[in-house]
Amino acid sequence: MIAYQCDGCGRELKKGALRYRVKIDVRAAYDELQIGLADLVRDHRQELLDLIEQLSRKDPSKIEEGIYKGFELDLCPACQRAYIRNPLKFHPEQGAETPEIDIDGFLRSLGKAPSPEGDSGPEA
Ligand SMILES: [Zn+2]
């Protein structure tokens, strides 16, 4: 039974098989704002009206993307290894180095993951 598809290489990931979830938050970031008395007493009304006018002519999704964008990816073990090695230059074909430790076996030994075949008996 296929439950997921690797977002890196496209490989099918069976229900219960080891996969990795990547959550990416891309946010606008600023240094701490310095607000002085002059900023507080200045009339901002026209600035705000101009900004509202500018924003009203833009695509709301583009404005939102300029402030925040979130992604969630599912990766197979090979793509996870490639991804953590270099997240900004991730290419699935770089990933196939075999790990020295059987992470899947270790996690299953802790009882944290169901077997790849499923624990609910034979499939209908
Ligand atoms: Zn993959």
Account of the 3D structure:
- With 124 residues, the protein is an alpha+beta fold.
- 31% of the residues lie in helices and 19% in strands.
- The protein has a two-stranded antiparallel ribbon.
- β1 and β2 form a beta hairpin.
- Residues 118-124 have low confidence and may be disordered.
- Zinc ion binds next to α4.
Helices and strands in order, then pairings?
Blueprint: E1 2-5, E2 12-14, E3 20-27, H1 37-41, H2 45-56, H3 60-65, E4 68-75, H4 77-85, H5 103-109
Antiparallel strand pairs: 1-2, 3-4
This protein binds zinc ion.
Zinc ion (ZN) binds at residues 6, 8-9, 11, 75-76, 78-79, 92.
Summarize the structure.
Helix content is about 30%, strand content about 20%.
Summarize this structure as a short list of keywords or feature phrases.
single chain; 124 residues; alpha+beta; two-stranded antiparallel sheet; 4 strands; 19% strand; disordered C terminus; binds zinc ion
